[in-house]
Amino acid sequence: MGTAGIFFIRCKRNSRALGHNSKVNRRNMFSIWNFDGRIMYKDIIEATNNFDEKYCIGEGAFGKVYKLMLPREDRVFAIKKLTCEEDSLDIESIKAFESEIKALIETRHRNIVKLHGFCLQRSHTFFICEYMERGNLEAILKNDEEALELDWPKRVNILKGVAQALSYMHHDCNPPIIHRDISSKNVLLSSDLEACVSDFGTARFLKPDSSTWTIFAGTYGYAAPELAYKMAVTEKIDVYSFAVLAIEVLMGKHPGDLIFHSESYDIPMINFKEILDPLLSPANGKNSKQLGLIWHLALSCLQADPQSRPTMGRIAHIIENS
What we know:
The protein is α+β, with helices and mostly antiparallel strands.
């Protein structure tokens, strides 16, 4: 197949780029960074040696992520390529791919990974976004040396960034966007440890005239309990996942049993200082106050009744002003 199947956009965050019927606009859109799309496509294939494994920096449910250095741009990007058979494209993978692009086109926030363009071709289906030098939060927390770099102020700042991104998605986007898979592996960090929410493959738009029922999506250990008995998507599932993430950042590891056995374990009675990451020096002064606030805020987000959980707008405001 030639370049007729390639679709690049100059991401101006315009929802019409993909249309509202979940089908990619079939017009030939060859502009990206003001370059001709055919030239850019050729540069990408050459720069990755046709997506050679040596450029692969990560792998997810629907594809692999590659590090991309474009000579015309003299900067590094990340490129997420859909995993598919040579002669066919998996329908579910395509849906996730289009969902991620639509969500990223609709967003413009410093704490959400930025989309630069995409390509839809039978054998090469991918999109290009900003490269986050430090990788994902999960990997950093599991590495003692790197985790030590994340002192208490930096950890609070990471949670601020994620909270602000989710608040923006829930309250400032129209229709609201629900991520559905907030976890430490989907929080990427820049060279200065600024957090960006990524991986919008399971994201959904909340529209009043459409059904919000869906199949399960997300990461076990972060998913809200109501998803076990009903599949209605509301913004409160992101609130629950954020709470798990917040406790993970405080502990330096996934809370695991602390969350799973919450019905038989009186979590609110725990002094938050007992669960803080032992790698770091004990929190004191302002740090101690902020961490205590985040701990109690996270507990309020873990309530079984979704409607009893605070909104992400409220959460972001409290953390920002702590």
